[in-house]
Each structure stands twice: as C-alpha cells, then as structure tokens.
C-alpha cells in the first residue's frame, strides 16, 4: 500500500466528524478555512457554528455590518481575517451574484485567500487537483521524507509545494487533502506524535533517523517588539464612558478601545500624574484618577508584547461622544479590552 492509500485508509477510520465535512457548499468550506487559519479546530468550531447560524448564506454575511462581523469574531484574534471575510462576502454577493469562483486560480484573487486556502476550497468543494500545504502538511512531509529544508524559506515553500503536488491522489483530491491535514493534526502532532502506532512506522525517515522532534525546520524570523499601553477608562457621573474606534492600520483595526497613551516604559502613578495627556477631550476636563492594576497586564501577540495599565479617570461630565456604560458590550473589542470589561466592577 503506497503513501496516499495508507493516508486515506487512516483517515477513513480516524477522521473527526466536523460540520464543514458534511457539505460541498463552497460558502461553508470557505468560512471554515478562514476561521481555521492559525486557529485550532476546537477553538474555531464554536465560531463556525455561530457564523453559519447567524449568516447561513453568503448574502446574509454580505448584508451584515463590519461591526457585527467583528463582534461575532471577537476572541478569535487575527482580526484582518474577519475584515477580509466580510469584504469578500460583499464582493461575491454583489459582483458575482453569490457564485463562488470554482477553481484555484480565480479563488486566489479573493481578498484573504492565499495558496493554501485556494487549494483547500477548490479541491474540497470542486474536486480540483490542488495540493494543500499548511502547518500540518509541512510536518508530515518533512518527517516522512526526512526533509530539513526550512519550511518558511523561499526554497522550502517551493520544495514542499512541489512534493505535495506529486503526492496528491488525483482521483480523490478532496479526501486526500483532508486526510493529510487530519493526520498531522491528530497523529503526527508537533509534540508527542504517536510514532509507536503509526501506519508509516517502517517507512518514516525521521523515525528511522531519530529526528522526529527536530523536523520540520523553521527559520526564526519573528522579531518581537515591546510596547507600553496606558488605557484611560473615562467615566462620568451619568454613567457614560469614552470608547473609540481604532481606525489606523495595524493591530485591532476597526475594533474599539478606551483612549490610549503609549509610553516608553511602564508608568508609576507619580509618573502618570506628570504626564502631559495629549487628549483634547481630557485637557478641558478636571478629573480624578486611580490605577486599576499596579502590575502590568502582559498581552502577547505574534509580533508584539503589550505591557498594559488601565487608569480609571472619573469626571463630572464627558462630552456628547461618550457612550452609555451599559452599551459597551455591544462593540467589538480585542481580548485585552473585553477581559478588562468583564473583570472591572463598573458602578
């Protein structure tokens, strides 16, 4: 039995029952693939269920506001996925009459759709012979064939794509692609893979050479920067609060937050008092303040570590731009802000 046959046989016995595997509808498959980018199935599944319940068709998703989409996405992270999801839904609904492109080349033109996602949708929904290469596939191929070319190098990306294309089952590309991804997710895991009970036990190069733990190889290109955030939680006597939309590009675009001051280091209460608060609204107001958290709340993103303090600002009356305190949970927020809202005792 060859590689692809063993893989598909393993899949037929061990695959998980997942809702997007019960349909050929490209909308559902596209939605699942966008949600599962950089997200594990157990985390993404509830979001998929929520999105398909609220937006059962591409037209429903297109008709929603971006704020509604971001709110439903809240907590999943990498919010550019949600913005691209909504933009693509509107494009397909309005420009393509709701019809998804049915091939890899045209799918690749959609916003938020790259090589992997286009391959997954075209093969699973339309049975096109297009090999997927995601983190799971890199790991399975690197170990089975003993390949030590870095998977995030230009050479590695081309090498693994070429190999994946050579291996794909041309009669069952949809099943094969799902099988190799599932095998990497459940069996050939990053840590503690099940090598003692593996269908490839006698043919896996990494197992024979005792290099399972060192493959795949990945170049460390991520440079992590440290930032110091000071959020101003401004509340007035009428139970209104300042809440603003992050409109500039970067992290959390179009999500909501409290007014923010970035500093060069973590501020003490005394240093905050001497700070020139560059906020036109607060400059005209008399206010009292207190520090919510003495120790920084550290929020780690892929490229940034945010050391955060929340300063409670109490004023008599805020301007008309303030929102009622009891409406704050209606707005989409990053996890850092939503966690504070959930834990802080607003009065």
Automatic annotation (TrEMBL):
It is an enzyme of class 3 (hydrolase). Its EC number is 3.2.2.31. The keyword rRNA-binding does not apply. PANTHER family: ADENINE DNA GLYCOSYLASE. Keywords: 4Fe-4S, DNA damage, DNA repair, Glycosidase, Hydrolase, Iron, Iron-sulfur, Metal-binding. The keyword DNA repair applies. Its cofactor is [4Fe-4S] cluster. Residues 35-186 form the HhH-GPD domain. This is Adenine DNA glycosylase. It catalyses: Hydrolyzes free adenine bases from 7,8-dihydro-8-oxoguanine:adenine mismatched double-stranded DNA, leaving an apurinic site. Adenine glycosylase active on G-A mispairs. MutY also corrects error-prone DNA synthesis past GO lesions which are due to the oxidatively damaged form of guanine: 7,8-dihydro-8-oxoguanine (8-oxo-dGTP). Binds 1 [4Fe-4S] cluster. The gene is mutY. Belongs to the Nth/MutY family. Pfam families: HHH, HhH-GPD, NUDIX_4.
């Amino acid at each position: 039995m060859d590689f692809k046959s063993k893989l598909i046989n393993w899949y037929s016995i061990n695959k998980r029952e997942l809702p997007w595997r019960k349909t050929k509808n490209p909308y559902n498959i596209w939605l699942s693939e966008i949600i599962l980018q950089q997200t594990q199935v157990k985390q993404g599944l509830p979001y998929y269920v929520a999105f398909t319940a609220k937006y059962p068709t591409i037209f429903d998703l297109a008709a929603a506001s971006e704020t509604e989409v971001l709110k439903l996405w809240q907590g999943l992270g990498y919010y550019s996925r949600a913005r691209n999801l909504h933009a693509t839904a509107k494009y397909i609904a309005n420009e393509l009459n709701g019809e998804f492109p049915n091939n890899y080349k045209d799918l690749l033109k959609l916003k938020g759709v790259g090589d992997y996602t286009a391959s997954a949708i075209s093969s699973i929904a339309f049975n096109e012979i297009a090999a997927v290469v995601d983190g799971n596939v890199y790991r399975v191929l690197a170990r089975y064939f003993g390949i030590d070319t870095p998977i995030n190098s230009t050479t590695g990306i081309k090498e693994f794509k070429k190999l994946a294309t050579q291996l794909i089952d041309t009669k069952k590309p949809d099943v094969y692609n799902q099988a190799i991804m599932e095998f990497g997710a459940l069996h050939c895991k990053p840590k503690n893979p099940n090598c003692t009970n593996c269908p490839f036990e006698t043919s896996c190069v990494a197992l024979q050479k005792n290099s399972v733990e060192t493959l795949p190889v990945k170049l460390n290109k991520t440079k992590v920067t440290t930032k110091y955030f000071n959020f101003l939680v401004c509340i007035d006597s009428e139970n209104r609060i300042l809440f603003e939309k992050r409109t500039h590009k970067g992290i959390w675009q179009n999500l909501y937050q409290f007014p923010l001051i970035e500093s060069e280091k973590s501020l003490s209460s005394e240093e905050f008092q001497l700070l020139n608060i560059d906020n036109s609204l607060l400059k005209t107001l008399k206010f009292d303040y207190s520090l919510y958290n003495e120790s920084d709340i550290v929020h780690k993103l892929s490229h940034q570590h945010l050391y955060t303090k929340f300063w409670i600002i109490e004023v008599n009356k805020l301007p008309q731009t303030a929102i009622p305190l009891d409406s704050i949970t209606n707005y989409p927020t990053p996890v850092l802000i939503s966690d504070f809202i959930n834990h802080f005792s607003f009065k």
